Amino acid sequence: MSEQRSHGFSTRAIHAGYDPDPATGAVNVPIYASSTFAQDGVGGMRGGFEYARTGNPTRKPLEANLAAIEAGTFGRAFSSGMAATDCLLRSVLRPGDHLVIPNDAYGGTFRLIDKVFTQWGIEYTPAPISDVDAVREAMRPTTKLVWVETPTNPLLNIGDIAALADVAHTGGAKIVVDNTFASPYLQQPLALGADVALHSTTKYLGGHSDVVGGALVTNDEELDTRFAFLQNGAGAVPGPFDAYLTMRGIKTLALRMERHSDNAEKIVELLDGHPAVAQVIYPGHEAHPDHAVASKQMRRFGGMVSLRLAGGKQAALDFCARTEIFTLAESLGGVESLIEHPGAMTHASTAGSLLEVPEDLVRLSVGIEDAADLVADIEQALEA
Ligand SMILES: *Cc1c(COP(=O)(O)O)cnc(C)c1O
After folding, report:
1. CA 20 to CA 32: how far, in whole Å?
2. Helix (H), strand (E) counts: the chain
3. 53 in active site
4. Rounded average pLDDT over 77-100
5. Residue of 80, 110, 179, 202 to mutate, ligand 1, most atoms within 8 A of C-beta
6. What's the mean pLDDT in 332-345?
7. pTM strictly above 0.85
8. Which of 131, 200, 348, 371 is 20 to 30 A from 26, alpha carbon to alpha carbon?
9. Is position 203 annotated as part of the catalytic site?
10. At which residues is N6-(pyridoxal phosphate)lysine found (predicted)?
């Protein structure tokens, strides 16, 4: 394999997991649309593949690539971020076990734990992930997992990964970091002590809002063996075209994250002190309570910006209705800018729970269009 661990991020992103096909010279991974693979005699696999749920030659290079960009040893690809989440939870937790989750966790993560895993005897405690002492206090003798998201969705709180890894390990628990918002370009959880980095590759890794997928990366072989068992045993795998699209996206991840960060910084400048804005939330902003921790563990601060409107819920809904370039839609991390109202959209399932989000909150996924156009769009939508 031409790629090495010592290579820079983009060299790994572009080359890891695949060399030009020796048979044809194809520089891109072929989309192997085959569910099964011919054997030379019983058990005689030619390329290590027998059936495409277990493994297929388009998914395999993606998995090696995912491991390389997270600077981990083992990568596993799934059909969605939630499928990766489900695999992780079932690999680590048994009935009677307890986990700590961020009190503003991704809505789908919260819903899966709260509505499904509790039925199987799993208990959880939500804690503010930016407060290391609160996480320590939420731990029990039965705690087997500390779930970290940083930055969190949608409030962009920051968890100190190295400190939280200490707390988890001291308590005999594993720590997983949902690294979806930062991407491996901006933040490397395994190097900071996390046991597993989890992604919704639907977001920045895919990067073009054209594919749904998930990933788990770890250095822990025993954990990876459990992931592989469930990946095949439960079968939530990506198809070859999805794997191809995700790899295609990853090649430009570094360029895109730089541009997302540049554009977000310009939007934050506009929002900062704007009379219609009660609060701008961005980890790169000096006023962010955990700016110092974010600066320590992130290369830059990414494309997610949240804000609270001075005029309350109606002002937030009006703002969402008035942007022209920012499309009103759930999801994030694509080349195009998106706007959404978490309370009524992505986080509607948290209503009435501890994880409820403020109703004057709006979340922006700042894309990679021209910054001047994005700034002008936000400006007119705030002032209309
Ligand atoms: C989108 C998302 C997920 C879930 O991923 P899917 O690909 O939609 O299943 C999990 N965590 C975070 C932070 C996300 O943004």
Report:
1. 15
2. 13, 12
3. yes
4. 98
5. 202
6. 95
7. yes
8. 200
9. yes
10. 203
